Amino acid sequence: MFARLAAALLVALLLPTPSLAAEIIVVNGDPPGVGFNDPTPATPLGGNPGTTVGEQALYVFQTAARIWGHRLVSKQPILVISFFTPLTCTATGAVLGAAGANWYFSNVEPAAGGQALAPDTWYPAALAEKLTRQDIVADPNDPFEIFSLFNSRLGQPGCLTGSGWYYGVDNNEPSNRIDLLAVVLHEFGHGLGFSVGPTNSSTGVRAAGFASIWEGQMLDTTTGKRWIEMSDAERAASARNNQNLVWAGQKASNVVPSTLAFGTQVNVLDPSSLGSAEAIPASFGAPLGPRGVRATLVAPDDGGGASPRDGCEAFPQPGLIAGNIVLMDRGTCTFVIKVKNAQDAGAVAAVVANNTAGPLGLAGVDPSIVIPAVGITQAFGVALRAAAPAYVHVGRNVNVRAGTVFNFPRLYAPSTFAQGSSVSHWDTSTTPNMLMEPSINPDLTRSVKNPDDLTWSLLRDIGW
Fold first, then answer.
1. pLDDT at 37 over 90
2. How far apart are CA 134 and CA 38, in angstroms?
3. What is the rounded CA–CA span in Å between residue 440 and residue 458?
4. What is the C-alpha R_g of the chain?
5. 292 in the Ramachandran plot: left (φ > 0), alpha (ψ -120 to 50) or beta?
6. Whether the model pTM is above 0.85
7. What is the per-residue pLDDT for 360?
8. Contact 370, 343 (CB under 8 A)
9. How far is it, in rounded angstroms, from Cα 112 to Cα 217?
10. Chain-centre distance of CA 68, in angstroms?
11. With 418 labelled, which of 111, 137, 194, 208 sits at a CA distance of 20 to 30 A?
């Protein structure tokens, strides 16, 4: 006997791969003339030889399949039903795609040569079949291990207008295009098991009272408990314990030093009583060099607007800023605008304080920004502003890897719960950016394992 659960999540597709790897089979669910069968002519680009929109989309999925299939080992084929179809859109926002395990299984007896699943524990279908070495038939009419939907309308009028998919596979997408390969690789990760699964990540409630295979490796560093040891209420609180929920699997922890960069900090040299605090480098601007930046930190008012502290208007007295580091508060405008205003006033670096708990990641793109910028916590920002002018060093912390606590990589657990993002992603404080963060970043490679990424190691922690 076994228990099964239809997944409420969604994810991936792939091609047959060599016998030592996983065989992931793409099942094209689109009708003739649309989606993967769209006959609209397209010019081959970025290593993608397809000559129609449908062919190019399918080739991207097949490339992602080869990447994931090469890393996984399973004697059971993984069937992925997938659709490239219109999804929810507006001119300024769109659902890119959704994917996940089609079924979750528990209490399945192994076939010859297989291993038993942990009792009363949910496993995503592909992993459950790999471990037990059998095709677990939940429904003969729905034999797929993974289910996925991706948005074919992206970039068309009224659907994230001015953007669109980049179908190349060379990691060379233009600034106004979204790299389809990166998104598909990300969603494959969810379908293969990078997810807390049927456990409700917001309420902590378990399906049928069974834990998911993830819960044994999720550690709250505040309480010292793993999710498998917690009550529903404790899991719900942990899902909102910003910066303090980590993945404690040994295989992922082992490769942290070879994958993540040293952490970044703002160290107050004078007054030294303020000490130091974690900072997160911006995704734009100059990287911090080995020596970092030492300078006086100032917190001048900008030209007005909603707040004189947000840096959203040009600074009226650049003489107070030239050669210094500028402190600004989060809010009102983009991070790029803030840092560009600081740079225009002569700042050598910028620090942006969060307006909620936890360190702040600064996202954005502007090639004209050539100074480094970092984000810090709200509390440290308040202390710095009270002490300004202060002499500080913004640079590396060689004792900590970025995005970790006790060498365990953080999971995304913002204090305000983010539906669809919280818990089942790496935290945004990891550096470099990881594939399974809650947003796709332009600096991602096409590797899912160390030294480029932690994702494959996490999957190995749950049995892959």
1. yes
2. 36
3. 19
4. 24
5. left
6. yes
7. 87
8. yes
9. 28
10. 17
11. 208
227-268 pLDDT, tens digit each: 999 999 999 999 999 999 999 999 999 999 999 999 999 999
| C-alpha to C-alpha distances, 281 to 127, 339, 429, nearest whole angstrom | 36, 12, 9
Token couple for 333: 């405008």
**CB environment 201-227: b (16+ within 10 A), e (fewer):** beebebbeebbbbbbbbbbbbeeebbb
Q: Residue 11: is its pLDDT beyond 50?
A: no
Task: Let me know if 420 is exposed, middle or buried by CB neighbors in 10 A (0-12, 13-18, 19+).
Answer: exposed
Mean pLDDT across 382-396: 97
In the chain the domains, ranked by start, together with CATH numbers, are 3-193 (no CATH), 218-260+403-464 (no CATH), 261-401 (3.50.30.30)
Name the one residue in this structure whose structure tokens are 């949910």. Answer: 122
